[in-house]
Design brief:
- It is a single chain.
- Helix 2 packs antiparallel against helix 3 and helix 7 packs antiparallel against helix 15.
- By secondary structure, the chain is an alpha/beta fold.
- It has an 11-stranded mixed sheet, with helices on both faces. The protein has a two-stranded antiparallel ribbon with strand order 4-5.
- The radius of gyration is 21 Å and the shape is globular.
- It contains 15 helices and 13 strands.
- Helix content is 38%, strand content 15%.
- It has a domain of 259 residues: Alpha-Beta Complex (Amidase signature (AS) enzymes), CATH 3.90.1300.10.
């Protein structure tokens, strides 16, 4: 049962081949058998999951494609009555009094919550090594990272510990771990899915999207969670199409752009070779392939980290040891409570974000750093708009290299930031992108292909991704755990 896609599982439930309770128990057994090796989960909601499954079985209504489908949530998605920690000491015991809107929409669709999954603290990181609860390991080789910040969700989907997962993507935190673990990871257009109840990193960058076993599964989940929300003013009133209508197996009439800057310095040759082989597959499926230049790509990392860390420093100011979260036991004055609670509660990467962001926003430096970066961001957005006037989608590697060994980059923040060099431009531009399994390295580590489309053109991602998926077998390969 746990090998099945969402569409296959839904058919099995409708035909009575198994019940939602049996399916949920099978996933819980899989978690029990494998999570000591991977550490994908922070909290397992066994009793709740079985209770939800029982209600689905009693209702007997599987008209919703997500009814009775077990899933998990990255541990920054608020869940009423269930710990939501952001994998930080400062929120180690925090239990929200409300649900994130994305979770409510999944509950309305009949999905079943298996638990909350591991992330870099407050989503700051590219390897899940910055989690207060420890690193999540890669299912393909447990000596390697699963990526980040959504390393737990990615590993759990790749290891069949759930049918799908919900993660967040601020600068690549869905796509990069999806690439490193070999699953589908969707970064939606900014505002496509409501952010209400999801803990913020950078408010003008954050997006919520699914990890899934197939492109079709990602399309099914997005249909359930997308759309305008009265609780989130950044969700525009843009129609949500039936994304599965765009799952075609040929690419006739589709123009694909290849941005040369995404295949240059810093991208390992083996990774580029795998993606170039994938491009050949797309050509055989009927796509017209053209060369594109995105010349501002070289400014993406400094631009992103100035802006995102600035927004992060502002968002993190709410964790002060007063209203909720960790409070120091060793303080006599108010200012001392603030300082020591944050010193004790935050990890190194979060402290680094606060210092960089506060510096960039401070008097005398705002114009030199933050404002200049904001202007570059506007230029990058225009450059993407011009590119999409010529093509329907762009194809690039998702990550410049496959997964790296645990600890390999832990002491070098700049090297870690460069892991996001191919994903952060998409968040700066506010467009959508998806990572799909594209192949493997000679060492047996996954390599992801990134498909990029214009704002609110997720259907183009699904069209290209599904056609590639049907023409290849990479998505069907499973790690040996």
């Amino acid at each position: 049962m746990i090998d099945l896609t969402i569409a296959q599982t839904n058919q099995g439930l409708k035909e009575g081949k198994f019940s939602a309770t049996e399916l949920t128990q099978a996933y819980l057994d899989r978690i029990d058998q494998t999570d000591d090796k991977l550490h994908s989960y922070i909290t397992i909601t066994k009793d709740l999951a079985l209770e939800q499954a029982k209600k689905v079985d009693e209702a007997g209504d599987f008209s919703s494609p997500l009814s009775g489908i077990p899933m998990n949530l990255k541990d920054v998605v608020c869940t009423s009555g269930i710990k939501t920690t952001a994998c930080s000491k400062i929120l180690e015991n925090f239990v929200p009094p409300y649900n994130a809107h994305v979770y409510d929409r999944l509950l309305d669709a009949g999905a079943i919550l298996l638990g909350k999954t591991n992330t870099d603290e407050f989503t700051h990181g590219s390897s899940t090594e910055h989690s207060y609860f420890g690193v999540t390991k890669n299912p393909w080789n447990t000596e390697y990272v699963s990526g980040g910040s959504s390393g737990g969700p990615a590993a759990s989907v790749a290891a069949d510990q759930c049918a799908f997962s919900i993660g967040t993507d601020t600068g690549g935190s869905i796509r990069q771990p999806a690439s490193l673990c070999s699953c589908v990871g969707l970064k939606v257009t900014y505002g496509r899915v409501p952010r209400y109840g999801v803990m913020s990193y950078g408010s003008s960058f954050d997006t919520i999207g699914p990890f899934a076993k197939t492109v079709e599964d990602a399309a099914i989940v997005l249909k359930a969670i997308a759309g305008k929300s009265e609780k989130d003013a950044t969700t525009p009133d843009v129609p949500v199409p039936n994304y599965t209508d765009f799952l075609k197996e040929d690419l006739k009439g589709v123009t694909i752009g290849i941005p040369k800057e995404y295949y240059g310095e810093g991208v390992e040759q083996e990774t580029a070779d795998v993606i170039n082989e994938g491009i050949d597959v797309l050509k055989k499926l009927g796509a017209e392939v053209i060369d594109i230049s995105l010349s501002l790509t070289k400014y993406a990392i400094p631009t992103y980290y100035l802006l995102a860390k600035s927004e992060a420093s502002t968002n993190l100011a709410r964790y002060d040891g007063i209203k909720y979260g960790h409070t120091t036991d060793d303080a006599k004055e108010l200012e001392e409570i603030y300082m020591k609670s944050r010193q004790e509660g935050f990890g190194d990467e979060v402290k680094r974000a606060i210092m960089i962001g506060t510096y960039a926003l401070s008097a005398g430096y705002y114009d030199a750093f933050y404002l200049k970066a904001a202007k570059v961001r506007a230029l990058m957005k225009k450059e993407f708009e011009d590119a999409f006037a010529k093509c329907d989608a762009l194809i690039t590697p998702t990550s410049p290299f496959p997964a790296f060994k645990i600890g390999e980059k832990a002491d070098d923040p700049l090297a870690m930031y460069m892991a996001d060099v191919l994903t952060v431009p998409i968040n700066l531009a506010g467009v959508c992108a998806m990572s799909i399994p594209g192949g493997f390295s000679k060492d047996g580590l996954p390599i992801g292909m990134q498909i990029i489309a214009n704002q609110y053109k997720e259907e183009n991602l699904f069209h290209v991704g599904h056609a590639f998926e049907k023409a290849t077998e990479w998505h069907a390969k499973k790690p040996n755990l």
